[in-house]
Amino acid sequence: xxxxxxxxxxxxxxxxxxxxxxxxxxxxxxxxxxxxxxxxxxxxxxxxxxxxxxxxxxxxxxxxxxxxxxxxxxxxxxxxxxxxxxxxxxxxxxxxxxxxxxxxxxxxxxxxxxxxxxxxxxxxxxxxxxxxxxxxxxxxxxxxxxxxxxxxxxxxxxxxxxxxxxxxxxxxxxxxxxxxxxxxxxxxxxxxxxxxxxxxxxxxxxxxxxxxxxxxxxxxxxxxxxxxxxxxxxxxxxxxxxxxxxxxxxxxxxxxxxxxxxxxxxxxxxxxxxxxxxxxxxxxxxxxxxxxxxxxxxxxxxxxxxx
Length: 307
Description:
Shape: flat
Order of helices and strands: HHHEEHEHHEHEEEEHEHEEEH
Radius of gyration: 22 Å
Number of strands: 12
Strand content: 15-25%
Helix content: 25-40%
């Protein structure tokens, strides 16, 4: 009996062409994928991979087994869908995960809709960044993850999930009102070279995105504060602690002493709802996606204008 996780690892290597790319798609480490494949080879009694330059390729046995893996994974998804169709009622547990910037604005109206229309649906919600919630969706520990994908640093989705686009958002520059550029409406990010930056905690996706954006403008970021929560970041900007890049959805009314400017290049992101492929038509998940789409309608052109 072949392990489903090991078959999923082999399928990912076949789809993406390398162990490293498969690991990135599955949101696990390359060593984890290698261990799964080594165990699968022992189960199969044949070599499934062989060296090719600096990478690997599937052997004939690996290609045959990868084909079976793809069909097995598709069949499992179909089986889940068929079982769900046996029950026309929208009920039972529904486990949601969402990035912090969507929870205060998007999730309350969506949850209110679900409570009113489907009172037998038992919804739980966890806050978490994509790097936390995506593996939980893949593993079956979450049903839906609401995540972000920046245009200049897209979120890599595993092959076993499907994303539904909810709306687009934009990040603007928050500067202390006394800064030399604060009188502008729009600035080139490369001009902002004389102020420290306020970021999320080191190692988070938001932190890495800020560093990526600034380095793309030939700026080596001097990060003075690392805090979670954009309202706190804006309060620090008001206190002249530095500058921040803040999505409009997360901003609200900026505190006194903060100027909000648009940037060149524009910094846009897409908010998506992610579930396992084949499960998007399950009654509870479909109801949740519909509620999220309805709640997203007012954010379709960006959450708030620049003030």
